[in-house]
Design goal:
- By secondary structure, this protein is an alpha+beta fold.
- It folds into 3 domains: 111 residues, no CATH class; 83 residues; 87 residues, Beta-lactamase Inhibitory Protein, Chain:B, domain 1 (2-Layer Sandwich).
- The chain is 29% helix and 28% strand.
- The chain is built from 8 helices and 17 strands.
- The strands form 4 sheets. A 6-stranded antiparallel β-sheet has the order 2-4-6-7-3-5.
- Strand 16 and strand 17 form a beta hairpin.
- Helix 6 runs antiparallel to helix 7 and helix 7 packs parallel to helix 8.
């Protein structure tokens, strides 16, 4: 009995000595903090915002995202001065039509754009003052991009009648040669037409009511007042015969107006309606959570319910969490990449998420 008690006492003492001896280690580990500026690897990734061409205007113009214009339809800016621009080259001598004419983006030239244009031996059909690619005027331009366009109304079986639109800006004031803002993606423009054209509009600053005559490309002044550019906008009129131009909502110009229908819903929403909506949403969320857990288990089900993903999840889980991807790229065999917006690429192998690129 005494021997067993001695062993027990020694065991407690050893445990006590271990804990006392290791206390500084534990304190050191618990006290470790992320160094300033040091980033830890993310474990869970929340679902990105759904694609909305009217809310991602700025995102569409980042250089790394220009490839997204391929296959889109757009209209060239109106020819105000054929000498000044837009600067357009072609394989053949032809008349440039820039009003009510849609073109499809088939390529965007990268690298030394001047060398590429010279190599193709193109003909300048608009922006005539820049026809000489060795001139001082040409060298004074900042070349942002060369967009290769196909005219949808010209049937060309050889596909060699293309337009090369030089999007550029003068290095010196006035910056009137800048046409980059006129590159308007068809989804963005089409959605503006669908949302606003032909509808009554309420301006939030003074609650006045206007009618949207059309969605069009508006000519705007640069901040310094020395140049101009074009940008999609709304042309409004009212019962007094007044005309007004307004820019659509964006990250910098959030909700300057509402449609009359949206405004009426906002005004007439009462407390009872809000409570009913909240109860319905809570019930929907509870049912959705239960369905996720039933389909994927308690742990992964809660991750899917929160619209998050992590490595090791299946394609089905990722689809249920983030929805359908923009595009699926088949790499080889059982490897594929799912693309969400411009910022996320999910890499799958044998149906399992192995890498999240963002």
């Amino acid at each position: 009995m005494k021997f067993s008690l001695l062993i027990h006492a020694k065991g407690c003492l050893l445990v006590l000595l271990f804990l006392v001896g290791e206390t500084p280690y534990f304190a050191q580990q618990q006290g470790k903090k992320e160094a300033p500026g040091q980033k830890t690897e993310e474990h869970l990734f929340h679902r990105p915002s759904s694609y909305d061409s009217t809310k991602l205007w700025e995102e569409q113009y980042k250089p790394e995202n220009r490839y997204q214009f391929l296959g889109l339809r757009l209209s060239l800016p109106q020819i105000i001065d054929s000498e000044a621009g837009p600067i357009v080259f072609s394989n053949k001598q032809r008349e440039l039509v820039s009003v009510n004419r849609n073109y499809t983006v088939v390529d965007i030239l990268t690298g030394d754009q001047t060398a590429l244009l010279k190599q193709k031996k193109l003909i300048n059909i608009c922006g005539h003052r820049y026809r000489d690619l060795d001139s001082q005027l040409w060298k004074e331009l900042i070349h942002i991009a060369v967009v290769v366009l196909k005219d949808e109304q010209r049937k060309d079986s050889l596909n060699n009648d293309l337009l090369y639109w030089v999007i550029s800006q003068s290095k010196q004031t006035p910056y009137s040669d800048s046409y980059f803002d006129a590159l308007c993606p068809a989804p963005y423009f089409s959605k503006l037409v669908q949302l606003y054209e032909g509808k009554n509009i309420v301006l939030m600053k003074d609650k006045s009511t206007w009618h949207c005559k059309s969605v069009t490309m508006l000519k705007r002044q640069t901040p310094d007042g020395l140049g101009s550019y074009t940008q999609p906008g709304l042309l409004l009129d009212n019962s007094k015969g007044e005309i007004l131009q307004v820019l659509p909502p964006s990250a910098k110009n959030e909700k300057p107006f509402l449609t009359e229908e949206e405004y009426e819903r906002l005004i007439h929403a009462n407390r009872n309606m809000k409570n009913e909506m909240m109860e319905a949403e809570q019930k929907h969320q509870a049912n959705h959570k239960a369905a996720c857990i039933k389909a994927f288990g308690q742990l992964k089900g809660e991750v899917v319910f929160k619209e998050e993903i992590e490595k090791g999840m299946t394609r089905e889980m990722c689809y249920a969490s983030w929805g359908a991807p923009w595009k699926i790229l088949k790499i080889s065999g059982d490897k594929e990449v799912w693309m969400y917006t411009w910022n996320y690429k999910l890499h799958f192998e044998q149906g399992i998420l192995v890498k999240i690129e963002h």
